[in-house]
Design a protein that fits this description.
With 346 residues, this protein is α/β, with parallel strands linked by helices. The protein has 17 helices and eleven strands. Helix 8 crosses helix 17 and helix 12 crosses helix 16.
Length: 346
């Protein structure tokens, strides 16, 4: 009989993590690090599910066997390959609810003498664990600062020095503005964003402080989970202060290499908020390749948005001048504004 593990034990294993749900289910959301080895295609799952409802379990099982049979050898080869990559550690399999799909693939693995473990309750139990994780109290601290202050680079430098950091924008593949998706990979679904956040947050249990960037509730099209967002709204903010020219130079470094047509389109998306005069001046600057002038036209709008979003937070400021991210991070640690992560107690 295959052992079914609770979520914490299952996630803590070393063997390959294999999700046997359909490609569409996997794209919508999956455990970070999992590989997709679908038992059924999207259309096949729909067919078997309909048959189950209309004619019962036996008819659905027979049809499922007919569909899977011709490719069972290929699936077996994949399981062997994953086992070899895992140096013989038990394969960790799951489906949606820990039912027939994962049990069927586990049976196949057993016929090949491959050790295997199942997730108790399947992906559904994992999603419950994810959402409950965000409801736990976390010692959050927010790093704020006007657009172009280099907050993300500073957070990553703090992480390198040993601080507990969750990169909200990096996990979302978005920098958080109308221009934020330029040059970055496609964003995950909000469900997968939650999964990625949970994977980043869980190992930080026991840290004295956990640093995140001060964000709105949406990072591009990814929504910050409600439980985490409520805690972020109540968290103290350390606002980074940088000279205007330093901020402009930083933005030019990020966006100057982007497609001018994409920059112009992103500018038009916020035209109503920029106003007609600033929009026109920004578009003219983009057309002639004057990225610094274009940035200056938009910073007034983004600065007003930032000041509005910061209202109501307990906030302190720190002037970092033109310090590079690594030196700025060392300064924050030396002033004890940021503490290093303590290992979780055993």
């Amino acid at each position: 009989m295959v052992a079914c593990l609770p979520i914490d034990e299952f996630l803590g294993g070393d063997g390959a993590l294999i999700d046997v749900r359909t490609p569409a289910e996997f794209r919508q959301g999956h455990i970070p690090g999992a590989a997709n080895l679908p038992l059924f295609s999207d259309a096949e799952r729909a067919e078997v599910g309909t048959l189950y409802k209309q004619q019962g379990r036996q008819a659905a099982v027979l049809r499922g066997l007919a569909l899977v049979g011709p490719r069972m050898d290929a699936m077996a080869a994949d399981l062997v390959a994953w086992s070899e990559r895992s140096s013989g550690a038990p394969l960790r399999l799951h489906c949606w609810r820990g039912g027939m799909r994962s049990a069927s693939v586990a049976w196949l693995a057993q016929q090949l003498d491959l050790p295997v473990l199942l997730l108790e309750g399947g992906y559904k139990s994992y999603r419950r664990w994810v959402l409950e994780l965000f409801e736990r109290p976390w010692p959050l601290r927010l790093l704020g600062g006007r657009t172009g202050s280099g907050k993300t680079e500073l957070l990553l430098a703090l992480r390198e020095l040993g601080a507990a950091v969750v990169d909200l924008e990096g996990l979302a593949h978005h920098r958080g503005s109308s221009f934020g998706g330029l040059g970055l990979p496609e964003q995950p679904s909000s469900e997968q964003y939650e999964n990625r956040l949970a994977a980043a947050l869980a190992p930080l249990a026991g840290a004295e402080q956990i640093w995140l960037e001060a964000e709105s509730s949406m990072v591009g099209r990814c929504r910050i989970p409600a439980g985490l967002w409520r805690q972020m709204k109540a968290a103290p903010v350390l606002a980074v202060e940088r000279p205007l020219e330093e901020r402009v130079a930083h933005l030019v470094e990020i966006y100057g290499a982007q497609d001018p047509l994409a920059l112009a389109e992103a500018t038009r998306r916020i035209a109503r908020r920029l106003g007609p005069q600033r929009t026109a001046l920004a578009l003219e600057a983009i057309e002639r390749g004057d990225w610094a002038a274009a940035c200056r036209q938009m910073l007034d709008y983004y600065d007003r948005c930032y000041d509005h979003d910061l209202h109501g937070h307990a906030c302190s400021g720190v002037d970092l001048g033109d310090l590079a991210a690594k030196e700025a991070a060392r300064q924050l640690i030396s002033r004890a504004l940021v503490t290093l992560q303590q290992p979780p107690s055993r």
